[in-house]
Design a protein that fits this description.
- The protein is α+β, with helices and mostly antiparallel strands.
- 45% of the residues lie in helices and 19% in strands.
- It has 20 helices and 17 strands.
- The strands form six sheets. Strands 4, 5, 6, 7, 8 and 9 form a six-stranded antiparallel sheet that branches.
- Helix 6 packs across helix 19, helix 11 packs antiparallel against helix 12 and helix 15 runs antiparallel to helix 17.
- It is elongated.
- It starts with 6 loop residues before the first helix and ends with a helix.
Length: 631
């Protein structure tokens, strides 16, 4: 009988198997080849052996690495910057400090290096990733928001996703193969569960086997085996480690309810109502005496009977009491309404169903609106064991993709892929030219066996002024000269270089080559710099900037969920001239009795929108900037 596997664990394994489609495997193979070419690993083992057997050179003329380096420079010349715009006036003060908190998180995570690596993956492997998460042990257990950079080949995205940032994906899965000892270091509280876990043989087939089958050798795959002296033999066993992020729709209730005043306030309201009623009574008594005096004059003049006067005065007293009573009730109601607050809260539907059973709450409920909202669920699995499953305090996936050329699917195109063919053409052309030149300088000979001393000829046949003896009675050896290459063949290399510059959008002038600009006027060079970088700016605007904006939004959501206590951030300024900045949030406010009554700069409840500063990562042409300031 087979071992029973948890349904949640089996579901994660099924998701992984579903993600490993032929398109995914082919995409990995193509992008791995591009990564290899960018790292000057451009010949397979069989190609090297074949060239060596033919006596041809095995060197390569790498024109791809400079292209990758220039694209990386343009995309990471400066750190990205974010701006926050408050929704209301109360949120403006808190929104202004978001950029400082983002700089603090970015600097603490060494974001400059992570972004550089992600952009390099984007250019060479078609896609790079950044991951926003929380280190719960940092700051003495208070937690810190951090940024990480997963490897692109470890990330599996829902194949049906059609959003450039994968916001419509049903899941995003990260899969790694790690020794048990490493996993125990990552999750020390789950040591017993990790040691009891076993590998799933069906999902253990890794990408490197596919690569080797297709004769693609690479620098990327790190061999994982059980010969590791760091851990014990049991801890050296390899396990699959899965982190699966999924979106779930959760029902919420947007409720509006009134909060009645407390007993002390009610007593104050009654006292105020009594005071105003008494003031009204005094006024009405004066009016009553005035009417009584007028009636007495009318009685003395014979215009009114005494009995009528008594009757009218009695009616007037009853009316006065009714008016005072109604006035007192009106004042109390008005004061209670002024002191009653209408509050708005968002609770889950389950919490609302519990609250509505309370009659007091039901009486104060004004309105309720049901809606659904996305929430991210994280499930972690090692082997055949479930580590944990929890909901994250964010609404979008914490994994941000950086594409080079988005194809409308989770399988984009890299900057290196279109250059591979031209790179092979250049390599082959140079190899043939050098081989032809080598054959012309070291001639081959056709001779009759026994006509020459072969050892002597091999040693001195190419030496200047050498005397080469021939045995009598034999024909003289005949030199075999190589065929002369066509002149058009020599132009092939120059055309190939130009084609690569055109395909990549990185021209020699952008790399400091003065041959094309030495006779050009200053404004012409500025115009060339502007026109030459338009393709790069298009890529940054439509691929990198949206990803950086999403990164800023995730930093905002995570930081608001983590930084709820009083905290002081020390932001290191990049300019050594400026002093480091201290930013303080959630500052408690106290009353005269020393009790906390609120917060100043309440960061967790502030509402603001995050925007990335367009072009903040681009390099600055200092000469053009200086000219603009002078103008």
């Amino acid at each position: 009988m087979g071992k029973k596997v948890d349904k949640k664990v089996q579901r994660i394994h099924d998701i992984y198997q579903y993600s490993r489609t032929d398109n995914r495997i082919q995409c990995e193979y193509i992008n791995q080849k591009g990564y290899d070419f960018a790292n000057d690993n451009q010949l397979s083992a069989d190609e090297k052996i074949s060239l060596e057997e033919q006596g041809m050179p095995t060197f390569t003329i790498n024109r791809i690495t400079p292209v990758v380096e220039m694209l990386n420079f343009y995309a990471t010349a400066n750190n990205p910057r974010w701006q926050a715009v408050g929704v209301t006036g109360d949120d403006t003060d808190v929104a202004t400090i978001f950029s400082d908190i983002a700089d603090y998180i970015w600097d603490g995570s060494n974001g400059e290096t992570l972004l550089s690596n992600a952009i390099n993956d984007c250019v060479t492997k078609s896609m790079g990733y950044l991951l926003v998460t929380v280190n719960p042990d940092a700051d003495r257990g208070m937690g810190e928001v951090i940024v990480q950079q997963p490897d692109p080949f470890d990330v599996y995205v829902d194949n049906k996703s059609r959003d450039i940032l994968f916001r419509d994906a049903a899941y995003i899965l990260i899969r790694k193969i790690l020794p048990k000892g490493h996993l125990i270091n990552l999750f020390p509280d789950s040591k017993r569960k990790i040691m009891a876990a076993s590998s799933n043989s069906e999902s253990y087939e890794n990408y490197s086997e596919k690569v080797i089958d297709q004769e693609q050798h690479d620098f990327h795959f790190k061999e994982m085996d059980s010969n590791n002296a760091v851990y014990s033999s049991k801890e050296n066993e390899l396990l699959e480690f899965y982190e699966c992020y999924e979106k779930e729709k959760v029902a919420y209730m947007n409720i509006f309810y009134s909060v009645p005043p407390n007993k002390e306030v009610i007593q104050n309201i009654k006292a105020e109502a009594a005071r105003q009623t008494e003031k009204m009574r005094v006024e009405m008594l004066v009016q009553f005496k005035e009417k009584q005096q007028q009636m007495e004059i009318a009685v003395s003049e014979g215009k009114m009977l005494p009995e009528r006067m008594q009757l009218e005065l009695q009616k007037e007293q009853e009316l006065m009491e009714q008016q005072l009573q109604a006035f007192n009730i009106e004042v109390e109601n008005r004061l209670q309404q002024e002191n009653s607050k209408t509050e708005n809260r968002v609770v889950t539907e389950k919490e609302f169903n519990v609250l509505i059973k309370n009659k007091r709450f039901e009486n104060t409920l004004i309105d309720s609106i049901k809606f659904h909202e996305d929430i991210i669920k994280l499930t972690c699995v090692v082997g055949d064991k479930l580590l944990y499953s929890k909901y994250l305090p964010i609404k979008q996936y914490p994994i941000i993709p950086f594409h080079y050329k988005w194809t409308g699917t989770p399988f984009p195109m890299s900057a290196v892929s279109p250059l591979i063919g031209k790179q092979r053409e250049l390599n082959k052309a140079h190899q043939l030219m050098i081989h032809n030149a080598s054959l012309g300088s070291s001639l081959r000979w056709i001779y009759e066996e026994g006509s020459v001393d072969t050892d002597y000829w091999e040693k001195y046949s190419s030496a200047p002024g050498a005397l080469l003896p021939k045995r009598p009675g034999y024909e003289a050896p005949v030199a075999v000269t190589p065929f002369q290459l066509n002149n058009a063949f020599f132009n092939l290399t120059q055309t190939g270089k130009q084609d690569m510059e055109y395909l990549a959008g990185i021209y020699s002038s952008m790399q400091g080559d003065i041959s094309a600009t030495q006779d050009m006027p200053y404004k012409g060079m500025l115009a060339m710099d502007e026109y030459g970088t338009r393709r790069i700016k298009y890529w940054l605007k439509h691929s990198i900037d949206p990803a950086l904006k999403q990164l800023g939004n995730l930093i905002k959501e995570y930081s608001q969920a983590v930084y709820t206590a009083h905290k002081v951030f020390r932001v290191v300024q990049p300019n050594a001239i400026e002093e480091d900045k201290n930013v303080e949030i959630n500052v408690p406010l106290y009353n005269d009795l020393g009790n906390a009554i609120g917060k100043w700069r309440d960061y967790a409840t502030a509402k603001f929108d995050v925007r990335v500063v367009a072009g903040s990562t681009l390099p600055i042409n200092r000469w053009a900037y200086l000219e603009e300031l002078k103008q």
